[in-house]
Design the sequence.
């Protein structure tokens, strides 16, 4: 079963929930992107530190 893309253009229940409670999906996306960025920084630091010790 495939859904028609025009069906999803207007989602009144979702729109009402977003107005009442905020857009949890968008907020989760922002937090996930920030977490991904921080983890990449930590892993890059860890790799650089580890490589520095290996060459000494």
Sequence:
């Amino acid at each position: 079963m495939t859904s028609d893309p025009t069906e999803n253009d207007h989602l009144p229940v979702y729109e009402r929930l977003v107005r009442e409670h905020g857009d949890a999906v968008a907020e989760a996306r922002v937090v996930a992107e920030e977490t991904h960025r921080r983890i990449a920084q930590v892993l890059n630091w860890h790799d650089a530190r580890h490589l520095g010790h290996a060459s000494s």
Observations:
- The first helix runs from residue 12 to 21.
- The CA atoms of residues 5 and 22 lie 24 Å apart.
- Helices lie at 12-21, 24-54.
- DSSP finds two helices and no strands in the chain.
